[in-house]
Amino acid sequence: MTDPLLEHLVAVLSGVGGIETVVLGGSRSRGDALPSSDYDLGLYFRDQRPIDVGGLRRAMEPLIDPGSEAIITAIGEWGPWIVGGGWLTIGGQAVDLLYRNVDAVSATIDRAVAGTITVDYQPGHPHGFISTIWLAEVHHCQPLHDPAGAVAGLKCRLQPYPRRLALALVDRFQWEIGFAATGAAKAIARDDRSYIAGSIFRGLACAAQVICAINGRYVMNEKGALALAGGLPLAPPNLGARIDALWDRFAERDHAGAIERLVMIERDVAGLVDDWRRTQDQFPFR
């Protein structure tokens, strides 16, 4: 770690009661951050030793830029999946904190490995909060303070990509691509552009989940998922350009043309899935 701000944040956060592990997530973890990119820090705790939120607020208060908006929530204030955390500005940089319960994440991994996933309504996630997001967070993060190896242990359980998870994601999302296209087509007569756009988005988001699953890739969220999917070995050809063309058609009010492009993507995804199902044993999934 060579980032002075990050080093200071980790030193402060690791001293707060209940914080067992501090991890770096987001673009700074992936290595594609801009100088202005947020610092996304995951704070992991245990059921029996929750974060001392009051202590966290006291520890962070001297670091927060004067006059800036600062939010540090209670555990659970942002719901069961986002949980809680903070939005801060420190040294002119946006610093986002997210609480994560090690025990809850571990149980979610157990269920996912066994082929059970959930999708819940969540503001900020227009396709819903898919439980595998927690797996993606663990897989992609960089542990900065993990003395008991809590997150390191979770990471080990995610490789190789679980076969039952891939099958569950395909079964959950593949059918909806065509279903979304059919629903969008029925709205053309009413010229309900919002419904058509929403249905197309859902179809594309489902396609991204399926493509990433058959490639054994964890998806963090909807943002960037299609770009990720389009660059994978098992993907429809020229996926990015085809999606651009789809939305161009929509912008021109050629709704039928936009939907037809979604249908063609669905057909390509179906062909990829069929091939993948026949050759699964060649892939390093457990």
TrEMBL record:
InterPro entries: NT_sf (IPR043519), Polymerase_NTP_transf_dom (IPR002934). Residues 19-49 form the Polymerase nucleotidyl transferase domain. It comes from the Bacteria. GO terms for molecular function: nucleotidyltransferase activity. This is DNA polymerase subunit beta.
